[in-house]
Specification:
Low-confidence stretches: 1-6
Strand order of the largest sheet: 3-11-8-13-6
Number of strands: 13
Number of helices: 2
Mean pLDDT: 87
CATH class: Mainly Beta
Helix content: 10-25%
Largest sheet: 5 strands, antiparallel
Number of domains: 1
Structural class: alpha+beta
Strand content: 35-45%
CATH architecture: Sandwich
Distance between the termini: 30 Å
CATH superfamily: q2cbj1_9rhob like domain
Radius of gyration: 15 Å
């Protein structure tokens, strides 16, 4: 196994405990927001903004989830969670949408990841481009951590429903 930015191997896959009601509440809340609630949006491709940013403190369950992610990633990096800088965004993928191949190696990221809130069947697998292509079929409550340098993409959403996930990057506070 290789060690990449504090991660053992190219990626780590895990499930957070007791997230069914948390996921439903965050999803319900997110889809009631209108654009004025967004801090900003970015990555306009194919008529949709791939990244939608909101304030972490705008919903208590969202703040709880972000604190869990800070704790998990701080443990991997052997840091205290108050030393972690976590940037996150919502990613909605309606039927027919894809996310093109990219990485997150833009700045000082140590870990990148995705957490899955709502995953209809056939709504697009995650492809990681390590030494070989790794195809992961996402599930609700699944957390995937990977190196920011690892290229990845999301295949076409072939379902008739919108998929919702939270992407994030972790760095250290300065």
């Amino acid at each position: 196994m290789t060690k990449l930015n504090g991660l053992v191997s190219d990626y780590q896959l895990m499930w957070l405990d007791k997230t069914e009601s948390l996921n439903k509440e965050i999803t319900r809340w997110f889809f009631t927001l209108n654009e004025t609630a967004y801090l900003h949006r970015s990555h306009l491709f194919g008529g949709r903004y791939e990244n939608i940013y909101v304030d972490e403190e705008s919903h208590p369950d969202l703040a709880l989830l972000m604190n869990q992610l800070r704790t998990i990633t701080a443990n991997i990096l052997n840091l205290d969670s108050d030393q972690i800088k976590l940037g996150f965004w919502f990613n909605t993928m309606a039927p027919g949408h894809v996310t093109n191949r990219h990485n997150h190696d833009d700045d000082d990221e140590k870990i990148s990841g995705v957490y899955y809130l709502t995953i209809p069947a056939n709504s697009g697998d995650l492809v990681l481009f390590a030494d070989e292509e790794i195809i992961i079929e996402p599930e609700e409550g699944m957390l995937i951590l990977f190196s920011p340098t690892l290229e990845h993409q999301v295949l076409k959403n072939n379902s008739q429903q919108t998929r919702l996930s939270i992407g994030f990057n972790v760095g250290m506070k300065t």
